[in-house]
Amino acid sequence: MSSHREAPEIAKDPVADSSDLYAFVSPDKPDTVTLIANYVPLQLPSGGPNFFEFGDDVRYEIHIDNDGDGSPDVTYRFEFTTEITNPNSFLYNTGPIDSLDSANWNRRQFYSLTRVADGREHRLAHKLPCPPCNVGPLSTPKYADLVRQATYSLSTGERVFAGQRADGFFVDLGAIFDLGTLRPFQQLHVAGKKIFKAEGEPVNATDRMNVHSIAVQVPLSRVRRRANRYGAGDQASVIGVWTSASRRQVRVLGDRGAADTSTGPFTQVSRLGNPLFNEVIVPMSKKDLWNSLPPSEDKRFARFVEQPELAALLPALYPDVFPNLDRLNKAKKARADLVAILLTGVPAGLIDGFTNATGDVQADMLRLNTAIPPTRQPDRFGVLGGDLAGFPNGRRVGDDVVSIALRAIAGVTVPLVDKTFRPDAAAGAVTPGLSAADVTAPFLGNFPYLGTPYDGFNNPSASS
């Protein structure tokens, strides 16, 4: 789920597939915002000898909209190159990798970082080295040291990292895509009640898997538009964030060992704003189209937000559990609550002390009110749990976005726009049953926040 294999074509191109996007005011540096975009999903840690990496032929970008038009005002662009140091070896490394310039490391990646703003491109860094993949205790014995070496503070105020991390997303993929089974409620499922006598234990399908992250920590003044004041109620405090990956339009395959050639303008092949948007809102026939378009075009998909398929499935899959939601669905009322959460931001007046509205343009972006400070004790349910610094106000690495999204679709958020609606009792309890505690690699308290990637030697999935 989230966006690990969300569309037919991009599922065939994992190097360009954005799996998760995070945007939050940095808890340890609240005068900055941290933006993290994950790519190359579902990596088996023991994937040698050709370990996972970014694509040299892919342009990776994180976009920020600070005026609400669904178009980027600031973009951070990452472009990668790969070098082989020993052309006569098949090995990723021939000994321990103890530094980023180790002669034992045979396949190294570098990247340039460009900031695009006000129609101008500014190269912030060139040929910054990535860390290696976490191979194992003999090959990468001090992996945390390599990550520190690969985390850079730039003269323009940004901190940046690009490399492998542990996948911090938690979801019971096997159950959810087996006819929408939620293991804590499996005995109530229309088909499951014939098989299950009690609730089941959830399984985090993405645990012990790795991803590749591009991460940048940016001073707030570098992402917000200029304004006289930045308060929690001021629209100038709200930014919209999404990530994209693009390839050149033409690729010519080399013949008999000749190198492939790519030419022409870049065209977008993947994007991600809110988790689960393309995954569970957009119909399969339109998923590839959605990946090719900018957020400013998302009014084309508004009807799928207003009448989401999943909202109709819940009462069908769990008979008599969601009667109020069933009546709401049959009334064909447009889900104004979901439109606000996913496409326009939540306007002032619906939740005390909170708004992340960006205006009337319907666009799928992670909307973050940068004037809302981080909380010392984050609530995994974010805004639904009374924690205004969490999803759908941006997204932190530990936010339980699957449960939040399921509860919103099940009707918990309808009273924000319709005081007469009473959510079903189950709506506030629906969950796949997982939390950040089900992620084996602990999150970090500082940049880049996602945990140390799993190594192939010690990872049980490598020998299962």
TrEMBL record:
It comes from the Bacteria. InterPro entries: DUF4331 (IPR025566). This is DUF4331 domain-containing protein. It comes from Micromonospora parastrephiae.
